[in-house]
Amino acid sequence: MADNSRPHEALIDRRIRKIVNARSVTVGLALTFVILALLGAIVIWLVDRHDFPTLGLAVWWSLQTVTTVGYGDVVPTTKIGRVIGGAELVFGVSFIAFLTAGVTSSVIERARGGADAARSALREQEAQAILDALAETTSAITALDARLGTIESKLQS
Fold first, then answer.
1. CA–CA gap between residue 58 and residue 75 (Å, rounded)
2. Residues in contact with 65: Cβ distance below 8 Å, sequence separation at least 6, in sequence order
3. Cβ atoms of 109 and 18 closer than 8 Å
4. Distance between CA 146 and CA 122 in Å, rounded?
5. Sequence-separated (6 or more) residues with CB below 8 Å from residue 99
């Protein structure tokens, strides 16, 4: 029985690695997203002190922009500020798409793994049913053979 469980352990290990990798990608993208927001805040604060006199206000604007919420309470009015804001919007939308794809991929992999396990269990049950039926058939043939042997010996005597 130990030999049969090893392929299943390898399958489980592969599935776990795929899920962990999908999570790692998602966490990596989320961290990149936050770093992008912080870098954008620092750059806009350094470049446009008129519209962003404090770093806190710049961080607030950057988080609004990178998440594409854009409340409109704080906006850049200079050309360089708008260029930085546009770049943050593009990167923000891209990262949101990548995060969504990562989460979706992880969910699909989990569902696929569960379906594969169910199919494998069903195949094992079917194989066991076939083996049981074969054992019953073999037993019935052996019993018939014994009866025929008894009948033949009675006929010969």
1. 10
2. 37, 40, 85, 88, 89, 92
3. yes
4. 36
5. 26, 29, 30, 33
Strands (E), the chain: none
Check: pTM over 0.90? Answer yes or no. Answer: no
- In single-letter form, the type of residue at position 89 comes to L
Nearest to 98 by CA among 43, 36, 154: 36
Model pLDDT for residues 17-63, shown as the tens digit of each residue: 665 666 677 777 778 888 888 999 999 999 999 999 999 999 999 99
Go through 122-153 and write b for each residue having 16 or more CB atoms within 10 A of its CB, e for each that does not: eeeeeeeeeeeeeeeeeeeeeeeeeeeeeeee
Rounded CA separation 93/97 (Å): 6
* Contact between 38 and 62 (Cβ < 8 Å): yes
Residue 55, amino acid: L
52 burial via Cβ count (<10 Å: 0-12, 13-18, 19+): buried
pLDDT in tens, 53-90: 999 999 999 999 988 888 888 899 899 989 999 998 88
